[in-house]
Design brief:
single chain; two-stranded antiparallel sheet; alpha+beta; 21% helix; 3 helices
Length: 67
């Protein structure tokens, strides 16, 4: 890749095999996030299913306690 320092390494330099015949850049699989991106709409489309299933009532202190 012609890098001289590890600080130069980023998502476009890392690949992941996504099938037996295909590899993809991490930047394509995991788009970069901007700070605060998940705090208000519109949410990144990659999180559509997660946002639909999210429930603010699901995680409360009583449910998190270990007996």
């Amino acid at each position: 890749a012609g890098l001289s320092r590890t600080e130069e390494l980023n998502r476009k330099h890392i690949f992941r095999r996504t099938s037996q015949t295909q590899i993809s850049h991490y930047q394509d699989i995991y788009p970069p996030m901007v700070a605060g991106n998940l705090l208000s709409e519109p949410f990144p489309s990659a999180f559509d299913e997660d946002i639909k299933q999210a429930n603010a009532e699901m995680f409360n202190c009583a449910a998190c306690e270990i007996n």
